[in-house]
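Researcher: Good morning. I'm working through a list of sequences from a screen, and I'd like to move beyond sequence-only analysis. For each chain I'm collecting a predicted structure so we can compare shapes side by side. This is the next one on the list. No need for commentary yet; just the structure.
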Amino acid sequence: MKILLDECVTRKLKPFLAEYEVYTVAECGWSGIKNGKLMGLCRDHAYDVLITIDKNLIFQQHLKDFPVCIVVLNTTTSKLEELRAFLPALKSMLPLLEPSKAYIVNSS
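Model: Good morning. C-alpha cells for this chain:
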C-alpha cells in the first residue's frame, strides 16, 4: 500500500507506518501544492491513500475523480504525541479502505 502524508501531517509519523510504503509531500517535492493538484499527483503516482488532518479536503474535491482514498485524522494538531493515538484505528482500517472515498479516523 502506497501512502502519502499531507504536509499538514508531521513527517515524524512515517516511522510508525513502516510496514507500508510511505512518503511525505516534502519528500516528493510537492510542498505548497494546492489540494486539487495534489489529488491529481496522487492519482498520477499511484498512491492508494492520502493521510491528512485537513477536514476541508474531503469537501473541496470530487472524490470520484481520483482513485486515491483520503483519510482524515480527526485532530487539530500535527504533534506526534497526538497523532500516535490514531495509529491503532488507522492501521486496523487501512486494509478495508476503498478508492475514491474519504474516511475520518478518531483516536482510540
